[in-house]
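A further point concerns the way the authors explain their paired sequence and structure data. For illustration, here is how one protein appears when written out as sequence plus structure tokens:
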Amino acid sequence: MSNKPIIIICGEPNSIFSEIIYKSFKKYNHRNPVVLIGSHKLLLAQFKKIGIRLGLNLVNYKNKKFFNLKKKTLNIIDINYKYSKPFEKISSKSNKYLSECFGKAFHILNNSKTKGLINGPISKKYFLKNKYQGVTEYISKKFNIRNYSMLIYNKKLSVSPITTHLPISKVSKKIDKKNIILKVLLISNFYKKYFSKKAKIGITGLNPHCENFFKISEETKVIYPAVKNLKIKKINIKGPFPADTIFLKQNIKKFDVVVGMYHDQVLAPLKALYNFNAINITLGLPFLRISPDHGPNFRMIGKNKSDPESLIDAIKFLDKTR
């Protein structure tokens, strides 16, 4: 059993996080200490509002050490947040609070050994304010990481988009041979490190049927050459395949990971197949970063009906990694 803690940023204060962290704690008996970073008073107020009885153990972190850390409870490092009621509308009011939560987590990750980082749901509209494409890009920028990859991980099938949170009109300009090679290498190395496995990777084209009848296609100029280079590097990769057929049952059973050219090209079919039974892992960081594969879900706030499975899967993954 490891004493290294799992760090969890509570995320958007007006979200379903308080509900799903409670359900996760009750359903899954974690082996490593879990340390939340967020508002102690707000979480307790939200627990009370939805009829939950659960205490939180206050922890201090000073001089690169945790004080009063316990294994069999939910620990929390308190970050002050002023609120008028337990559940409010999502707005920019929480931006300073979220920045402090991330800042505290980054300080710990830079100075102590941990199992990794999980962040609760974040509202991209308000917190990122169009400065970053997503939380993946925000964290990568904070650690000066240029080569990173988003892996939506599911035991049966994972997916990874070459471009992440981009408008469709900009996707083709951001696809290049080097980027594809670097991201696929990250995926392959991840499977070797954590699963001792040579991942079977399928890659999609960009255009319908992998064709473009008006000019030389991205498949010809970029994707085929990248695949050829990766095969030379002994990566188990095939493609490019048309995106409209690679997710058929007889095709996906051939792969561990499907790499696509843009976000919804691979995330939409994955969620159609497995709902939210997946976790978002950022590859390329100096630590493991995971988030549940869903947002704040403001329509469900305070209803105590949300599914915690994605957060449980995130905690389990870090709990069981070397």
Summary: The chain has a mean pLDDT of 91.
